[in-house]
């Protein structure tokens, strides 16, 4: 991928905050509004691709198949001079697309902001546009909207430090109704109700913020498979909401002057977040599970497991067993079907990430409780 910076990309994009709700292609006799005019000509003229970072949690990255739908719609409508960027790769979706993203399953916006994780990702990818759907796990953790929006502000500041003309599309998060959190639905409403005012105070002429309403018209019963994560219908709705706002951002970027590829800098890993790697036990089938402690706090922690196919034949399903020793209990998991019996945690692939070609990998994560000792478990992986 080309990694060149578009530093003079500010002209022609007004410093107003837009709330995008729905959009459909007009008939051929209709004159498009100026923000949608000549999208093909605008993107085709670019000397370098416009780098677009999808940013958030598992709704964006695990697998976040709205990204595949959005990418292919952009390609089919002439927006080919684009590059989806991120330090994470695609996780399935059953169709070819540019799957690079920054959707970290289980992450909180407040944690990413407080631990300064974003600058390193920005340095490695140098986006021109960010699509941010972030805050679901913060809502689940009962973090106040004011605290979440303060994290948004810090993240926006970091984006602008990376690229002063960054175009930032911020979503009102999709509804949520997890069975373990009956209050989460109203908490999401409270956050969404505060986003417009926050964006109005944070947008600038040079680096505009556009609010994209992913809430309206989204139904947790019809559009998610678990009350939180989009199913195929939900992915389509999310793609449809992102599309007009992203087209508007693309048409506001003039033809750039190519610049040399920058040398990425690395942000040190925060000392407050240890990341030990657990034992990996590859069985003859070539399935390997690697355990990582993402973060830890008094009474709890977040962990992530990477499942890799190191064999020569495809995996069509996998099972990971984690053997704990200190009374750890899993409370919430994503991107796998997780059960626990005593000290043994068993994770089976989700419907969309069970097939792994040789050399491919996927991840799942969870939140758990723990006492004063939290020994890294032994991890085993096998075919299912």
UniProtKB/TrEMBL annotation:
Signal peptide location? 1-24
Enumerate the InterPro entries for this protein. CBD2, CBM2/CBM3_carb-bd_dom_sf, CBM2_carb-bd_dom_sf, Ester_Hydrolysis_Enzymes, SGNH_hydro, SGNH_hydro_sf
Alphabetical UniProt keywords: Signal
Q: Which residues form a coiled coil?
A: none
Q: Where is this region: Disordered?
A: 252-282
User: A GO BP term, please?
Assistant: carbohydrate metabolic process
Membrane listed as a keyword: no
Superkingdom assignment: Bacteria
Give residue spans, biased composition: Pro residues: 255-282
Q: Does the keyword Signal apply?
A: yes
Q: Which residues form the CBM2 domain?
A: 280-384
Q: Which PROSITE patterns does the entry mention?
A: CBM2 (PS51173)
**GO MF, one example:** phosphatidylcholine lysophospholipase activity
What CDD domains does this protein map onto? XynB_like
Question: What name does the UniProt record give this protein?
Answer: Cellulose-binding protein
């Amino acid at each position: 991928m080309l990694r060149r910076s578009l530093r003079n990309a500010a002209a022609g994009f007004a410093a107003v905050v837009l709330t995008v709700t729905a959009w459909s292609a007009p008939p051929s006799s209709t004159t498009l509004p100026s923000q949608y005019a000549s999208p093909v000509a605008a993107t085709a003229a670019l000397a370098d691709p416009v780098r677009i970072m999808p940013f958030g949690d598992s709704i964006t990255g695990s697998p976040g198949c709205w990204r595949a739908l959005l990418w292919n719609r952009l390609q089919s409508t002439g927006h080919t001079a684009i590059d989806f960027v991120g330090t994470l790769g695609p996780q399935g979706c059953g169709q070819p697309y540019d799957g690079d993203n920054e959707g970290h399953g289980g992450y909180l916006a407040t944690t990413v902001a407080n631990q300064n994780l974003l600058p390193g990702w920005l340095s490695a990818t140098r986006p021109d546009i960010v699509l941010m759907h972030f805050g679901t796990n913060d809502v689940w953790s009962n973090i106040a909207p004011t605290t979440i929006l303060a994290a948004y502000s810090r993240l926006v500041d970091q984006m602008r430090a990376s690229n002063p003309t960054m175009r930032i599309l911020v979503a009102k998060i999709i509804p949520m109704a997890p069975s373990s959190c009956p209050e989460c639905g109203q908490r999401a409403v409270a956050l969404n109700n505060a986003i417009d005012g926050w964006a109005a105070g944070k947008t600038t002429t040079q680096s505009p913020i556009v609010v994209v309403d992913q809430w309206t018209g989204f139904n947790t019963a019809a559009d998610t498979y678990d009350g939180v994560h989009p199913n195929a219908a939900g992915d389509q709705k999310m793609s449809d909401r992102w599309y007009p706002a992203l087209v508007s951002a693309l048409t506001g970027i003039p033809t750039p002057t190519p610049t040399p590829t920058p040398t990425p800098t690395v942000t040190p890993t925060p000392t407050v977040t240890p990341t030990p790697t657990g034992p990996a036990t590859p069985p003859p089938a070539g399935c390997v599970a690697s355990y990582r402690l993402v973060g830890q706090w008094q009474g709890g922690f977040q962990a992530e497991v990477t499942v890799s196919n190191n064999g020569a034949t495809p995996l069509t399903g996998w099972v990971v067993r984690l053997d704990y020793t200190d009374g750890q209990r899993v409370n919430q998991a994503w991107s796998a079907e997780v059960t626990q019996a005593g000290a043994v945690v068993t994770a089976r692939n989700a419907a969309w990430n069970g097939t792994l070609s040789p050399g491919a990998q996927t991840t799942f994560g969870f939140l758990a409780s723990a006492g004063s000792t939290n020994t890294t478990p032994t991890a085993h992986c096998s075919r299912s």
